[in-house]
User: What shape does this take?
Amino acid sequence: MVLAGLLLGLAFWQQNSALQQPLNLTQEQLLDVPSGSSPTGVLNRLQADGVIRDAFLLRLYWRFNLSGQSLHSGEYRMTPGMTAKSLLTQWEKGEVVQYSLTLVEGWTFRQVRAALGKQAKLEQTLNNMSDAEVMTKLGHPNVFPEGRFFPDTYRYVRGMTDVELLKQAYNRLDEVLEEEWDKRASDVPYVDPYQALIMASLVEKETGVPQERGQIAGVFVRRLQLGMLLQTDPTVIYGLGERYNGKITRAFLKEATPYNTYVISGLPPTPIAMVGREAIHAAMNPVPGNSLYFVARGDGSHVFSADLDAHNAAVKEFQLKRRTDYRSSPAPIVVPTPGVDSVPTVDKPAVEAAPTPELPAPKTDVPEPVPEGAAPEQKPSEQPVAPPQANDDAEKKGEQRPQ
Assistant: This one.
């Protein structure tokens, strides 16, 4: 009995010594644990790499004390001075290293895909796919991707796929859209949440200061109800595709594209960017009033007008005689985002053109630039024009959906 007690004490001492041993490290390292790994395999690997000793005793500890505990895949942070017991505790709790990716309001799907492609810790599975193929892989075939993902900061771990992250953003947008649809004003002119999402994307791209979202939505909604053209520049830019060179000309305003709201009546066929909850709420709860026009002051804010004369006067003051520090949005403020591979939130990005538009050939003449907000007069029609029905199916090749 004495001998058995001595042997048991020796075994306990050896195992405790193995647990309390410091990891043999001179600097911080990340331990990659692929999906399907076992504690036995990882401990053997660490011993082979010289990070620990007595892997057998550590395996016994896991078997008898953490039997049935799964080992979460991902990366575990190992630092000099950390003990083997601390590492096993991380495994037990699944304390894997997390990364983050911020999707920004106003981004297009092209920008979303570019940001995903830069995440080295994400498993990249979508690189060679078309937008239509991406949506099919997400489980939403024939859905046009623009504006269908919610801008937010998403956490992920090493080994997670880009598809998994996109599914989170897609489902989150559906949740927010449904929540806001249930709280919409009774008189908004949308037949379904998708039309409200399209309107929210226009509001998102036209808004320079957050408090004006509701007013901008009010202008657009009143123009819809009166049968006036929406005449918003971001739709022109989006519809031009890669031909947009930073300037909107009079010829561009007259050019027929599926998105040019100086030409088409009602809403464009799809959203033109990602939108946040605030823009969705504004689109579904526009601020009442009588303004039908707005023009940028140059500091991110706008002047709102109820008639064309007042609007043209504001255009003359703020557009034709632009201040030297003119901006269509406020000066950028960098907001740090936690996470190793995060994308910082900065000044709202400019409108990006649609990736694959089917448009007429560009004109050969050099048209005259037009100042922002200088729209031709639009008189209300006798019969209000209802916004277009949103087509449930996008073309499989990524073409824009018809009006």
Observations:
- The chain has two domains: 19-96, 101-318.
- The two ends are 89 Å apart (CA to CA).
- Residues 101-318 form one domain.
